[in-house]
From TrEMBL:
Similarity comment text for this entry: Belongs to the peptidase C12 family.
Protein name (record): Ubiquitin carboxyl-terminal hydrolase
PANTHER family linked: UBIQUITIN CARBOXYL-TERMINAL HYDROLASE, UBIQUITIN CARBOXYL-TERMINAL HYDROLASE ISOZYME L5
A single cellular component GO annotation: cytoplasm
Species of the source: Kwoniella shandongensis
């Protein structure tokens, strides 16, 4: 694992990472979920959806040209779009999330947990950057210690920092990139920090109708890749589910036949949230010193060789049993 000189680590394409990232930046009332399909029935279970974050294999030639996407680049200031350019490496995940949420309208609610708002940190950022160009906004984001700290809090721990220039012949890993799609002022936009300006796609109706246009746009983009390519991931930024489900269950007018479905959804969301909290906690703790200390103690007691041989024997046994069952 090499350290990027920018000081920003790669972002894992995990909805729990993005959900916690937004929370740590002060955003309220939103969560991020995986989106495995763009069909109507899947989208219906996740509504209201405010934005989509699309991860795809990055092709360098598409960074500054119109290749791979439709639409027209427009001036963000003239069209009321908050848009920041990516000015440093590895920041595209956080940048895509911020480009999305900074354009989501705050929504007040009688239930405080369902209120959608940016929070003081991002509110101040939006006020401070009002009227600035995309390049300047990108530099403001990249120079924010708090945003960089939150972004890097999910980075994987490694005891090694290898200089990539020391291995010039080493095959480079595929690069992936995040962009956001969402409706702004009745228009579907694509917000790609590597482009100079936002991309305007098509007019959309109020409400959830924009998802139909977004689906067609993303499917068209996926269609430019070879058939069968698995180079994509799609996340959706949606209203927080648990407060809404709790409100509906506490509402006496909710039909009895609907309550069972709502209760199942609530249990699913709670389980997912608890699992996400545990996974994020593990991401943020460096367990390598514990592992090294364990190996050192085993070595001092002279049992590490025996443990390795036992592990090899168990692995061999499992492999033979799988082979016997025709699993390999």
């Amino acid at each position: 694992m090499s350290e990027d000189p920018s000081g920003w680590s790669l972002t894992e394409s995990d909805p729990q990472v993005f959900t916690q990232l937004l929370r740590d930046l002060g955003v309220k009332g939103l969560q991020v979920d995986d989106l495995y399909s763009l069909d109507s029935s899947t989208l219906e279970t996740l509504k209201p959806i405010h934005a989509l974050i699309f991860l795809f294999k990055y092709v360098e030639s598409s960074g500054s040209s119109g290749e791979g996407t439709s639409g027209v680049e427009v001036d963000p200031l003239e069209n009321g779009v908050w848009f920041a350019n990516q000015v440093i490496n590895n920041s595209c995940g956080t940048l895509a999330a911020l480009n999305a949420v900074m354009n989501i309208r705050p929504q007040a609610s009688s239930n405080p947990d369902e209120t959608v708002e940016l929070g003081p940190e991002l509110d101040n950022l939006r006020d401070f950057g009002a009227g600035m160009g995309s390049q300047d906004l990108g530099h403001i984001l990249s120079s924010s210690p708090h945003i960089r700290e939150v972004h890097n809090s999910f980075s994987k721990s490694s005891p090694f920092a290898l200089d990539p220039t020391a291995f010039p012949d080493r095959e480079k890993e595929d690069a992936y990139h995040f962009v956001a799609y969402l409706p702004i002022n009745g228009i579907l936009y694509e917000l790609d920090g590597l482009r100079r300006n936002p991309i305007m796609h098509a007019p959309v109706e109020e409400g959830d109708a924009w998802l139909d246009t977004a689906r067609e746009t993303i499917e068209s983009r996926i269609g430019t890749y070879p058939p069968g390519s698995l180079m994509f991931n799609l996340l959706c930024v949606r209203s927080a589910a648990i407060p809404r489900l709790q409100r509906l269950l506490n509402d006496p007018t909710t039909p009895a036949e609907v309550r069972f479905q709502l209760q199942d959804q609530l249990e699913h969301e709670r389980t997912k949230s608890q699992r996400g909290e545990m996974e994020n906690s593990l991401r943020r703790h460096n367990l390598l010193p514990t592992v090294f200390a364990l190996f050192k103690a085993m070595g001092e007691k002279g049992v590490i060789g025996k443990a390795v041989e036992e592990a090899r024997a168990k692995g061999k046994d499992r492999k033979e049993r799988r082979a016997a069952k025709g699993e390999e």
